[in-house]
């Protein structure tokens, strides 16, 4: 019977392996491990971190709004800012999220942000998507009575707000007539239109819902995509009808 010691099956058996092990043993445990190897790679992960921050912030904001823990006057500008930040990050690097989009980002990093993702898909704050009815403010205590900013009849609003909304209607329709079809051309104009309409009236009116649907349609496009000719004509038709109803309801 041989006196040689048989090493266990998991132990290295060649001198080369032992040499490697001895060389590795001399490495310091506090040696810094580089997570990125280039500036481009660092920028990529920085952008992903910014998307994560926007997503979690927007989720908290949406939940606060649903619980009525934040005034809509505070919610709207904050939501618009977060949406603009997200669009800016993704717009500067369309390949950042890949084909899976924001849902793929959610699944990959385990982010629980149902409300935030829904808001990103729609592309506008809830106060723009849905008409917000004001309570109070139309009573007799106002300086102008029924002629206040939110009077009891019709669309009571300042002349400046009405002029701004009218101008935004005309701008959107002119853009379509000039053959604007890209997302980054039309979405900001429609978003500005909806914001100005909310300054004039908190009531819903015929055609308002179609503007919101066009906002959602545009927001679903990639930054380099365009609507087709048929969609452009339909959008112009819907905007023209909405403008006529809006103008008729003015006092």
Automatic annotation (TrEMBL):
Subcellular location: Late endosome membrane
Residue span, VPS28 C-terminal domain: 157-251
Keywords: Endosome, Protein transport, Transport
GO cellular component terms attached to this protein's record: ESCRT I complex; late endosome membrane
Entry-linked Pfam families: VPS28
Gene Ontology biological process terms, A to Z: protein transport to vacuole involved in ubiquitin-dependent protein catabolic process via the multivesicular body sorting pathway
Claim: Transport is one of the keywords in the record: yes
Membrane topology: Peripheral membrane protein
GO MF annotation: an example: protein-containing complex binding
Record domain VPS28 N-terminal: where: 22-130
SUPFAM superfamilies membership: Endosomal sorting complex assembly domain, VPS28 C-terminal domain-like
InterPro entries: ESCRT_assembly_dom, Vps28, VPS28_C, VPS28_C_sf, VPS28_N, VPS28_N_sf
Function per UniProt: Component of the ESCRT-I complex (endosomal sorting complex required for transport I), a regulator of vesicular trafficking process.
The family this protein is said to belong to: Belongs to the VPS28 family.
Protein name, per record: Vacuolar protein sorting-associated protein 28
Lineage of origin: Eukaryota, Fungi, Dikarya, Ascomycota, Saccharomycotina
């Amino acid at each position: 019977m041989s006196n040689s010691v048989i090493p266990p099956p998991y132990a290295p058996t060649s001198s080369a392996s032992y040499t490697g092990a001895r060389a590795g043993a001399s490495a310091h445990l506090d040696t810094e491990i580089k997570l990125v190897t280039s500036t481009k790679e660092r920028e990529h992960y920085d952008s992903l971190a910014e998307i994560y921050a926007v997503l979690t912030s927007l989720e908290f904001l949406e939940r606060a709004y649903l619980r009525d823990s934040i005034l809509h006057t505070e919610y709207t500008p904050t939501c618009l800012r977060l949406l603009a930040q997200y669009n800016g990050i993704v717009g500067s690097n369309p390949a950042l999220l890949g084909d899976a989009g924001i849902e793929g980002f959610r699944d990959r990093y385990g982010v629980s942000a149902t409300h935030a993702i829904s808001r990103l898909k729609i592309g506008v704050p809830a106060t723009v998507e849905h008409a917000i009815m004001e309570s109070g403010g139309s009573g007799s205590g106002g300086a102008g009575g029924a002629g206040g900013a939110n009077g009891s009849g019709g669309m009571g609003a300042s002349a400046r707000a009405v002029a701004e909304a009218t101008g935004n209607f005309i701008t959107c329709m002119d853009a379509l007539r000039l053959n604007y079809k890209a997302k980054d051309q039309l979405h900001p104009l429609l978003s500005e239109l909806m914001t100005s309409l909310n300054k004039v009236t908190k009531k819903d009116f015929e055609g308002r819902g179609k503007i919101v649907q066009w906002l959602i349609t545009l927001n679903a496009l990639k930054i380099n995509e365009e609507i087709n000719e048929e969609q452009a004509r339909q959008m112009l038709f819907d905007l023209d009808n909405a403008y006529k109803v809006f103008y008729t309801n003015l006092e």
